[in-house]
Automatic annotation (TrEMBL):
Coiled coil: none annotated. InterPro entries: Desiccation-related_membrane, YtxH. The keyword Transmembrane applies. Keywords: Membrane, Transmembrane, Transmembrane helix. Pfam families: YtxH (PF12732). The chain crosses the membrane at residues 6-25. This is YtxH domain-containing protein. PANTHER family: GENERAL STRESS PROTEIN (PTHR35792).
Length: 92
């Protein structure tokens, strides 16, 4: 399983557990709704942080792969030019 799916599963399970715990708590409705809203906001913030982290990591990997590709192309051009020059200077 991918780490992202595991993280989402754990956060979803924790959210469901917290929601059920709050709903069955012996508090008044107004307090319960405030707790639910606060927990929802907390989980939303956590999800945003996780998403930002994953997005940053993916962007860094993409940029590294792109730079590696550019380096390989430049190296190939250099080798082609060197080979071309060697063939042009070749005397029989």
């Amino acid at each position: 399983m991918k780490t992202d799916k595991v993280i989402l599963g754990v956060l979803g399970g924790a959210a469901a557990g917290a929601l059920l715990g709050i709903l069955f708590a012996p508090d008044k409705g107004k307090k319960t709704r405030k707790k639910i809203m606060q927990k929802g906001m907390d989980y939303s913030d956590d999800m945003k942080d996780k998403f930002d982290h994953v997005l940053t990591a993916a962007t860094k990997k993409y940029e590294a792969i792109l730079q590696e590709g550019k380096d390989l192309i430049a190296e190939g051009k250099e080798k082609f030019t060197a080979t071309k020059d060697g063939v042009e200077n070749f005397e029989v």
